[in-house]
Amino acid sequence: MSVHIRPAQSGDGDAIWRIMEPVIRAGETYSLSRDMARAEALDYWFAPDRSIFVAEEGGQVVGTCFLRANRPGPGSHVANAGFMVAADQGGRGVGQALCEHVLAAARERGFQSMLFNFVVAANTKAVRLWQRMGFETVGRAPDAFQHPHQGMSDVLVMYRRL
Q1: Residue ranges of domains in the chain
Q2: H or E element, residue 98
Q3: For residue 92, what pLDDT is reported?
Q4: What is the pLDDT of residues 12-26, one digit of tens each?
Q5: pLDDT digit string (tens) for 107-129?
Q6: At a CB cut-off of 8 Å and minimum separation 6, what does 47 contact?
Q7: In the CATH hierarchy, which fold is given to the domain comprising 4-161?
């Protein structure tokens, strides 16, 4: 697989929405309203405090992510990121390629560490990927996520130094 990561452009909204919509509607990994409208979802993803990237393969957008400071001011040395991969691309390395890119971009921007504030423990594929990428679980909030099929799920806080 040959994935190319690039900054998102204004014309990428439709491709990013095609990835976001099934993730949002499923309600299994993000704490977003399952009936969130396209415009609201894209406003969330493209918030002014974020740098947005897309993963392309064969000219098709197959994944997207954002990078931002986790908090302003004294917490701004800690990065945060969010990732979504097209449903038909799972297990092909797109998430890993996006994570590798974001870690490098965070280092280049002077971040000292990265923190994922809200990793749904039931999302075991993501948890395993983040662990392979050097993240460790530093916190757990019991029953903090209402999974639509598995019931209450813990939420993990995952961290790594850059």
Answers
A1: 4-161
A2: helix 94-108
A3: 82
A4: 999 999 999 999 999
A5: 999 999 999 999 999 999 999 99
A6: 66, 68
A7: Aminopeptidase (3.40.630)
Identify residue 41 by its one-letter amino acid code.
A
Nearest CA to 118 out of 152, 59, 159 is that of: 159
Rounded to 5 degrees, φ, ψ at 12 are: -90, 0
Buried b (16+ CB within 10 A) or exposed e, 47-68: eeebebbbbbbeeebbbbbbbb
Query: 142 and 157 in contact (C-beta within 8 Å)?
Result: no
Task: Give the whole-angstrom CA distance, residue 126 versus residue 90.
Answer: 10
Distances (CA, A) of 43 to 13, 32, 111, 152, 160: 10, 13, 25, 28, 28
In Å, what is the CA distance from 130 to each residue of 74, 83, 124?
A: 25, 11, 10
